[in-house]
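Teaching assistant's notes for section 4

Start the section by putting this record on the projector. Ask students to predict, before seeing the second block, whether Exonuclease domain-containing protein will look compact or extended. Collect guesses on the board.
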Amino acid sequence: MYASSEVAVPTIPAVIDLEASGFGSSSYPIEVGFALPNGRLACTLIRPEPEWTHWDESAYAVHGITRDLLMAFGKPVDQVAHWLNRQLKGMTVYSDAWGHDYAWLAVLFDAANLSPSFKLDHLASIMPECEAARWNKLHQEIEKELGLKRHRASNDALMLQRTWVRLMDSNQFKTA
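Reveal the predicted structure now:
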């Protein structure tokens, strides 16, 4: 636990983010990244399984990852699933898009015939409901400060984590 001057707040969360081939039931994960409480960032591209053929150009326009790049540099699903289990074992990791990320992690782990060794939860579950309106403004500030040019999984996880920290450290949570 760490504390602001007067109100204890939870430990900095581990945050995960996934990029995908698109949305919907045919979509699949193409990159996964995370930001750990100790500041460590990591990500990897995921090589699509042969039956993973869905490709949405609007998703590509956001993440800029080509299918050719995935085929050349993506890691096999079983290797990615084992890696995630080693890195995140026993942790609760948080996502801002829990529904999508949960589904894409399920696709990844099902293809690898493994179960996650970590729990996925929604970032909103550790954020005071009254502060949800400030989230977008703070997230934009963090994005500008970090100056990250690429929309990629580990960058997104870092921005989410730092936004959460700033929100929790803000004067809104200090009593007078």
